[in-house]
Design goal:
single chain, mainly alpha
Length: 434
């Protein structure tokens, strides 16, 4: 006998706000590591390396977080498809928050030797594991509550979370960098943002305690026994296409928010404070425009927006590196802003687009694996490759621009091979005899 479930529908603004706050906190944890890797972790945890090699090693531990994210999406996706989207939000936040606090407690290489970078590596892996589950749970809970004709708009609010998390992480770093001497910042100041992550995680858990389960999940009677195997068997091509399509977004975002910090401060001698302000200003604009770009996705289609943003990336990467190489703050800001505007045209609609591509019974696993595998392809290696290419080139790192343009072209092809998913409005039925 079919069971009838009563589903309470929460206020969409309240649900969107709770999802946004949670993703902001989780991405704060993830981003604060990236900023620390660009500014201070190399000398503290890899002191026997040259400055460039130390930065590369720090970025390698940064990349481990991306490698862990697809595994996290498999583990938490299984939970989300079998037990519900809501438990994923709680467990992933706990894991990421605890790992972040622990990073702030790891002694430097000078204190415990090689154990220091090993511990850093393990904790970064756990951070990535938690974040791999966070995105799928937060996005699906919002998308599956939202009305179809405004799904992209409401689903975009969790996508604002990364911008807020980045601003919060870099804002804390900026205040500490300005208030402390270089020696104080290196000795203990960089640890404060990691410790603050614990308090933020507790706040996020409180905000999410009142969320209700997705009505779409509660309608599923035939749950996939092993969602990941079903995704691989029946949706393998789709996973690879979505991962390839999203690679450009990760590559562009982490090139301008992580690699550019290291490049500008170490190669061009730009003040750390100035560079952080340039990046933060551009990210703030990107976050503010996310709901508007998502609304366009409801009007004109998800695939259309993705193709437009990806095409803009193809055209902007070479001008971007030329502007960055000037070392002029205003021109560097414009370089980063242009890249993030192209990024947001695509990623504002991704939270609606990916879930719509997968059937509900494996949606949490499929969407999350595709999203986070794109992070491995585009985000894990970009700071490392870009640092190496910039070191070998002249003042203008054309190699970085070519590398990013190549990724954008591959993503453009992948987006072109994906279908449109925007719900088609149902025409009104005129009464007979009208």
């Amino acid at each position: 006998m079919h069971r009838v479930r009563t589903v309470s529908t929460p206020s969409m603004p309240r649900l969107a706000a709770a999802s946004l706050a949670g993703t902001a906190i989780e991405f704060y944890d993830f981003f604060v590591y990236g900023t620390a890797a660009a500014l201070v972790l190399g000398p503290l945890f890899f002191p026997t390396f040259s400055p460039v090699a130390g930065t590369l090693a720090a970025f390698a531990t940064f990349g481990v977080g991306f490698v862990a994210r697809p595994l996290g999406s498999v583990v938490f996706g299984h939970l989300g498809d079998r037990r519900g989207r809501r438990p994923v939000l709680v467990l992933s936040l706990l894991l990421t928050g605890a790992s972040t606090v622990a990073v702030g407690c790891v002694p430097s290489y000078g204190t415990i030797g090689v154990a220091a970078p090993v511990l850093l590596l393990v904790l970064r892996f756990l951070q990535g594991l938690g974040l791999g589950g966070e995105w799928g749970g937060a996005v699906l809970l919002t998308a599956e509550h939202a009305p179809a004709r405004r799904r992209a708009l409401w689903s975009s609010f969790p996508q604002v979370g990364p911008a807020l998390g980045f601003l919060l992480a870099n804002g804390v770093m900026l205040v500490l960098s300005a208030a402390l001497s270089d020696a104080e910042f290196a000795r203990w100041g960089w640890r404060v943002p990691f410790w603050a992550g614990g308090a933020l995680a507790l706040a996020g858990l409180w905000l999410r305690s009142s969320l209700t389960e997705s009505p779409r999940f509660l309608e599923i009677d035939d749950h996939a026994r092993v969602p990941f195997f079903e995704v691989v068997r029946h949706h393998g091509r789709l996973v690879l296409l979505t991962a390839g399509a999203l690679a450009v977004g990760y590559a562009v975002f982490y090139a301008v928010t992580t690699w550019s910090l290291s490049y500008a401060t170490e190669r061009l001698g730009v003040s750390r404070t100035v560079m952080l302000l340039c990046v933060m200003g551009a990210v703030a604009v990107k976050g503010a425009l996310t709901p508007l770009m998502a609304l366009f996705g409801d009007w004109y289609g998800r695939r259309t927006m993705c193709l437009t943003g990806c095409g803009a990336c193809v055209l902007w990467m070479l001008p971007m590196v030329a502007l960055l190489a000037t070392g002029e703050p205003l021109l560097m800001f414009l370089a980063i802003l242009g890249a993030l505007l192209a990024f947001v045209i695509m990623f504002a609609v991704i939270a609606a687009y990916l879930p719509e591509l997968y059937e509900p019974r494996v949606r949490c696993t499929g969407a999350a694996v595709g999203y986070n595998l794109g992070g491995v392809l585009g985000g894990a290696l970009t700071p490392i490759v870009a640092t190496a290419l910039a070191e070998r080139g002249g003042r203008v790192p054309w190699g970085v621009g070519v590398y990013l343009t190549g990724i954008a072209l591959v993503s453009l092809v992948c987006f072109a091979l994906l279908p449109e998913t925007r719900p088609v409005p149902v025409p009104a039925v005129e009464p007979v005899g009208g």
